[in-house]
Write a structure and sequence with these properties.
alpha/beta, four-stranded parallel β-sheet, 16 helices, 14 strands, about 15% strand, binds adenosine monophosphate, binds zinc ion
Amino acid sequence: MELQFYNTATRKKERFEPLDPQNVRVYTCGPTVYDYAHIGNGRTFSSFDLLFRLLRHVYGEAHVTYVRNITDIDDKIIDRAGERGVGIRDVTDVTTEGFKEDMKGFGLLEPTHEPRATDYLDGMIDMMQKLVDLGHAYEAEGHLLFDVKSDPSYGKFANRSLDDLIAGARVEVAPYKKDPVDFVLWKPSTGNQPGWPSPWGRGRPGWHTECSVMSEQLLGETFDIHAGGVDLIFPHHQNEIAQSTCVHHGAPMANFWLHAGFLEVEGEKMSKSLGNFYTVHDLLKQWPGEALRLAMFTSHYRQFMNFSEHGIRDAKILLDRWYRLTEPAGEVTKADVSEAVVEALADDLNTPKALAELHEIAGKVAKGEERPEVLKASAGLFGLLAQSAEEWFAFRPEGVEVDEARIAELIAARNAARKAKDFAKADAVRDELAAMGIAIKDGPEGTTWELMP
Ligand code: AMP
Ligand code: ZN
C-alpha cells in the first residue's frame, strides 16, 4: 500500500516511507490545558487520530508509536491558577483529566504516550545547556534566548526570510534580545509564579522547548511525522526545528510535517465573545461522539472547515442509517475493510473521497449486493460504527426526557387500534408519538422506537 501525504516542509505531496516500518513514529502537538478543548482542537486531533488509525491498519497495531503531549505550563494556565488562588497543578490535573475524557467520548484512540511537559524539565534544561554550549543560545536578564542568526536555515521551513521575520517582530521587541526574532527558551519566574531552578535562575520553559524534548525522548532525534494545526507552522514548528536540528547536528527533526486547516463557525473565527464557541465537552452532551467526528471528516483535513450543528445532524442521520444496515452484522476482520476506502485515505487522508466510497458500500448493502460486515469494517477504520446498534440508539441528548412507559403504552394502543382496523386511531397515535419526538418502526420482532434526529 503506497501512502502519500502533503509535506509542509517541501510543499509537495510525497510518498511516505517510514524510517522503520516496525516502529512508525508520529508526534502531534497536544492541547494547552487551561480550559476545555474546543471543536477546532477537536478537528485537528481527530484528523491525526485518523492518521494514527490508518498507519496502524497499514503497518500493524503494534508498529506505530503516537505521541500527543499535554502542555501543562503556560501563561494562560498561570493566569487561570492566579484567578482561582490555586497552584497550576490544581488547574491542570483537572483540565488534563477532562481533556482525556472528552477525547474518549469523541471516540479518539488513546495515543501511545501523552507526556506532560512539566515531567520533562530536566531534559529541557539539558537541551538548553547544549544549545548554549554549541553557541546557539545566550542569556539575557534571566532569559535564555535562541540566537536565530546562529542557524543559517532559520525561516526556511516557514518559507519566510529573516528580513521579513525581523520586520514582523519589530512591534514587540524586548530590549534584551540581540535580534528581534530571537525566541525565548527559558524565562524568569517572579513572586509566586511557578518556577524551576536552572543555570539561568528560577524560571520556566518556553513552549517550543517542550515539544523538542518530549519528541526526542519518546521518538528519537529524527522521526517520521510531526503534525499540528496550520497556526503552528510559524513560529512554533519553525522554532522546534531550529532547536532540534541545532542540538542534533543538522539531523532533521521529522521527515513529514502535516498541518490541519482551521475550523471556523459560519465563516467567523470561533471566539467566546462572538458567542460561537463550542467545546467538545458541551457538544458531547447533545450529540454522540461518532456523529461529531463524522462531521469533521466531511471536509479534507488540510482545507479550512466551516462548522455548524446542521453538519452534525446530517452525520447523525447518516450514522442512524448505517447502524440499521449493519444490524445484524457478524464479526468483522481486517479482510473486510474495503480497499477503495483505504486507498482514498492513503492519498493524503482524502476523507471526502473515503466517505463517498462508504456511501457506495452502504447503497450496495441496502440492495443486498454487499455484506454488512464490509460497511462495518470500513467505517471501523475511522472509528465509526464502533458500538452495537442498541447502544447507538440508546443515546439521549442531555435534557431530553424520554418517558419510556408512556411510549410503550402508546405503541400498545396503536397496535390494538391496528388490530381492530381502526387506522385513523392508529395514525393519530403515531402522530402523538411524533410530536414527542419519537419515530416508530414496524419490524418482524414487533414495533420499535427511536428518538427522531
Ligand atoms: P492549543 O491548545 O491552542 O495549543 O491547540 C491545540 C491544537 O489545536 C493545535 O494543533 C492547534 O493548531 C489546533 N487548533 C487550535 N485552534 C484551532 C481551530 N480553530 N481549528 C483547527 N485547529 C485548531
Ligand atoms: Zn509542539
